Amino acid sequence: MNSTRIQHLIPGTAILLLALTVTWLSFTREPAAAFLFPQTISIAMLALAVWNFARAAMGLARIGAGLSTHTMKTITPGIAIMVIYIFLMAKGLGFYAASMLAFVALYTLYDPAPHTEITSWSKRVAVAFGFMCVIYLLFNVLLKVQTPRGLFF
Question: How many Å apart are CA 153 and CA 149, to the nearest integer?
């Protein structure tokens, strides 16, 4: 087994385990009707993860040369924000409030606009608010999906 195959197999395995966990959780929670949308998405995610894992295991995944140290340094703060969002903020603050804060944090982290200008911050907050309005309409109004409740709706 060469290093390229291993480089694709490790994330492929991690994605497959994540997909299996999400699928299992979506089918074991109650009330079952509230989890119809997550079940549908998790099945699609699982199918793609199995396909990705199989391609990596057979050595068919030959795209990319892996992540450089520079790329890892660039994405690690974003991953940290998302882990904090998922494990600490979403249930404590509520889905929409926590998502708004996480979106602004990610936008601020990766936005090249100056952090000292009020117009940059106004733009970040306005874009995040608009995005959250779309998410609210999608999940709450259109799909009628139950989102994690917390301190702030």
Answer: 6
C-alpha distance across the termini of the chain, in Å:
50
Alpha-carbon distance of 27 to 22, in angstroms, equals 9
pTM over 0.70: no
What is the per-residue pLDDT across 72-118, written as a single tens digit (0 to 9) for each?
899 999 999 999 998 888 878 888 889 999 999 999 999 999 999 99
- Which tokens in the block code for residue 126? 């306005």
Contacting residues for 117 by C-beta, under 8 A, at least 6 apart: none
Rounded Cα–Cα distance for residues 51 and 44 (Å): 11
Specify the amino acid at residue 77.
P
Report the C-alpha gap between 153 and 145 in whole angstroms.
14
Give residues with Cβ within 8 angstroms of 1, minimum separation 6. Answer: 9
